[in-house]
Structures are given as structure tokens and as C-alpha cells.
Amino acid sequence: MNPRKIAVVASSLSALLALTPQSAKAQQAAEPKRPSLEALQGIILDRAPQTNVAVVDHERISAKRIDIVGDDGTIRMTLAGNTPAPIIDGLQYKRAFDVAGMILYDAKGSERGGFGVADMPSGTTAVLALDHPAMDAAGWRVSADGSVMFVINQAPPLIRDPGLGDRLVPGVQTPTRIKLSVAADGTPAVSLADAGDQPRVRMTVTAEGYGAIEFLDASGKVVHVLAPERDQKR
Predict the structure, then answer these.
(1) Separation between Cα atoms, residue 126 and residue 128, nearest integer Å
(2) For 162, which DSSP code?
């Protein structure tokens, strides 16, 4: 046999012998945890689910409102040119501004989020929100002036009032803990607030183009700024 071929065969055998039970166990341990095949088999509902429609009933549907309901008839989703006013714990309240879009509801019929286009005094605004039981939790807003904002609100305490039939009180004050924004002029910022809704740390890019981290006190005054690139050029 050609000496070169003998060397290749020997190298291959060495590689196979190196895969000892111990190394195989180590390789297996490095794999991410996953559900067992038995567990997956137990949660399969349909091995051939419907993923397409053979014939389209209508090319176009025109409606002011379409409701999607659950098995018990509860409205779980509404698509409307003028979405209904928010329902919270069985009571319907006035909406701050008109919205065309989609609203999501929980099993009790309370609004828990949605997205759409809002008609606001400042102009048309695109909005997307997910809600705590009686308050916005997180949401996007793309304003008419070109600014974009994303906020995350701390969950407020769930308060019930006998005057409301012991139902949840909406709009309980709560701090916006995280705010990510791009202003109309393009200035980006990430802000972290304390429990009093006061921003205490703000990360941004200055007008000169320097990255900066600002630390604020309880009154909103900037008490310290980290801007290494700016400081090096001074």
C-alpha cells in the first residue's frame, strides 16, 4: 500500500479511537437541553394541520368592524376602522383618541393590547401597546413629527373600588422605568427611571457625535457625565 494512504488510514483510526465514551459524554453534555421526543409526542394535536385554503370565499371583505370570538363567545380580537372604547374589568371607558386598527382582549373581555393608527391633534400617529390588567405595560409610538418612542411601565398595584362595583381602577399612576427614543432631530436616547418616575440614567449621543452617559439627581439635574471621547479631545 502507498505509504501516504497508510498514513491517512492511521490518522482516521486515531480519530475514531479518540472518541471514547468519556469524550462522547462530554459532547452530549455540551448540547442544549431540549424536550424529549416522548414529551413532544404528548403535545402534538395534529400531524397534518391545515395551513392553506383551497378556495378563497371572497376576494375582498368590506366591514367597519370584525370580531373574533372564543369558544364561549367572548370577543378576543377586534379589527375596526374605529376601534371600540377600552373595556377594563367589565366597564367601558372613553378612549383618549380615535384609533383604527386591532384590539386584543383577555378571556374576561378586558383590553390587553393592540396596534393601529391614531388620529391625534398633533397628527397621525402609529401606535402599538401591550397592557397590564388596567394600565399600559409597554408600547411603541411613531409620531407625526418623525420621533419614535418605546416605553416600559412598571406594573401598578391592582386597586378595586366599591364605587365601580369592586372592579379594577384604570390608569393608576405608575413609573415609566425604561424609555427608548429617537427624537425628531435624530437624537437617540435610552433612559432609566427610579420608582418616582424620575429619569436617573440617560445614555445618548451628543450633538457633536460623542457617546455619553448622563447621571441625574432626583430633581432632574445632570450631576455627572461620562463622555470619554469628548474628554480626550479637550
Answers:
(1) 7
(2) G
Element (H, E) at 104: strand 98-105
Residue by residue, pLDDT tens for the chain (234 residues) are: 555 554 544 455 455 445 555 655 655 567 889 999 999 999 999 999 999 999 999 999 999 999 999 999 999 999 999 999 999 999 999 998 899 999 999 999 999 999 999 988 889 999 999 999 999 999 999 999 999 999 999 999 999 999 999 999 999 999 999 999 999 999 999 999 999 999 999 999 998 999 999 999 999 999 999 999 888 877
What is d(CA 200, CA 192) in angstroms, rounded to the nearest whole number?
Answer: 6
Give the span between the Cα atoms of 161 and 143, in whole angstroms. Answer: 35
The DSSP string of 36-47 is -HHHHHHH---S
- Which phi and psi (to 5°) does residue 83 adopt? -60, 150
What amino acid occupies position 97? F
Give the whole-angstrom CA distance, residue 68 versus residue 78: 6
Do residues 92 and 107 make contact, with C-beta atoms less than 8 angstroms apart? Answer: no
CA gap 158, 170 in Å, rounded: 9
pTM recorded for the entire structure:
0.79
Residues 6 or more apart from 211 whose CB is under 8 A from it? Answer: 203, 204, 205, 227, 228, 229
Residue 29, beta-bridge partner list: none
Which residue type sits at 89? Answer: D
Question: Which 8-state DSSP code applies to residue 154?
Answer: P
User: Between the CA of residue 12 and those of 6, 7, 19, 47, what are the distances in Å?
Assistant: 10, 9, 11, 42
